[in-house]
Amino acid sequence: MARIDIKGLHAGIPGKEILKGVDLSIDSSETLAVLGPNGHGKSTLLAVLMGNPRYEVTAGSITLDGEDLLAMGPDLRSRRGLFLAMQNPSEVPGLNSADFYKSMMNAHRQKPMSLAEFYKSLQSAYKAMGIPFEMSSRNLNEGFSGGEKKRNEILQMLLLQPTFAFLDETDSGLDVDAMKIVANAINAQKEKGTGFVVVSHYERLFELVHPTRTVVLVNGQIAIEGGPELASKIDHEGYEWLKREYGISLEKDDKPQNKISIGSCATKVALNGK
Question: What is the DSSP letter of 250?
């Protein structure tokens, strides 16, 4: 069983601290639900875990099985079993989906896989996600709907078989049937030993993937931790009860952030053949 330990984590972008002392441990045996108001650090936490260079860690530590995760680049973190399904997957004109997936998978192997082995894995993943296999010949996410992009992220997870999968609002943009497909893929991957950190605003996904634990991130810190019932309480009451029951007030954040994804960095690496 693998483990991530986060201690006293402070991080943000130039001129703005977003995470203000996060303490959290995650085992690969669990599914952790992360909730919180918009702009309070949920996506930032996942981006920092994956090594997005946009974010600077100013204090604290993150270890993966006792090793310093912050000393690893995004590519090494991926090879060590971390995966991020992005909130806003990038469209990449000129990059064939199947070619990208093959390069992605081979980067995680000591020896390149055969073409037959690759296509067998690819066909299985497309079938599991309910996506026509013909879409593998299209450029990565180009012209895809929001829901198709989100399913493509989970398809990549199935191909990589990560130890930890971080899902950043993967359910947004999905219709009811697509959400069930995504949830089934998540549950199947859980059976194979993948640990999940799932960020969502909607109880529906949590009802389908059954988180073992829930944390609420407010003002850049873990405000409260509990069981799956927390998601239901927030779905029905919002976050105002935090002030009423715990004296926690929500800080307002009206400052926009630039949209730079780790996906654009990874795409540059793939296009350069690195």
Answer: P
CA distance 224 to 241: 12
pLDDT band at 267 (very low <50, low <70, confident <90, very high): very low
Residue 89 Cα to chain centre, angstroms: 11
pLDDT tens per residue across span 64-101: 999 999 999 999 999 999 999 999 999 999 999 999 99
Contact 12, 44 (CB under 8 A): yes
> What tokens appear for 112 in the block?
């390149």
Distance in angstroms (rounded) separating the CA atoms of residues 170 and 154: 8
Contact 101, 124 (CB under 8 A): no
- Entry pTM: 0.90
Strand arrangement, sheet containing 221-226: 82-85, 164-168, 195-199, 31-35, 213-218, 221-226
Amino acid residing at 247:
G
Which residue type is seen at 35? L
Give the residues across from 19 on adjacent strands.
11
- For residue 35, is it left (φ>0), alpha (ψ between -120 and 50) or beta? beta
On whether the CB atoms of residues 7 and 60 are closer than 8 A, the answer is yes
Q: 81 with 2: CB under 8 angstroms?
A: yes
* Terminal alpha carbon distance of the chain: 30
Contact 97, 135 (CB under 8 A): yes
Cα(238)–Cα(242) distance, integer angstroms: 9
Angle among Cα 126, 128, 134 to the nearest 5 degrees reads 20
Query: In this structure, are residues 58 and 234 in contact, taking their beta carbons and an 8 Å threshold?
Result: no
